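TL;DR need structure tokens for one chain.
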Amino acid sequence: VGRGDVVGLHLERSADLVAAVLGVLKAGAAYLPLDPAYPAERTAFVIADAGARAVVSSAALASSLPASAS
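>> reply
TL;DR here they are.
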């Protein structure tokens, strides 16, 4: 991930989310907040529409991500 890329953040609101946002910004990329409460179809559409190069998630939430984001 580098300058100009988009990174999806599929995390609950926590210190991990703050660390992920700072890491993405430090890399020069833009972050795309992905609400874990949204249905998988909506999350898949948002990821594809934004052209996210990567998605960061926790182990607990990874199973709720669409297959295209894994």
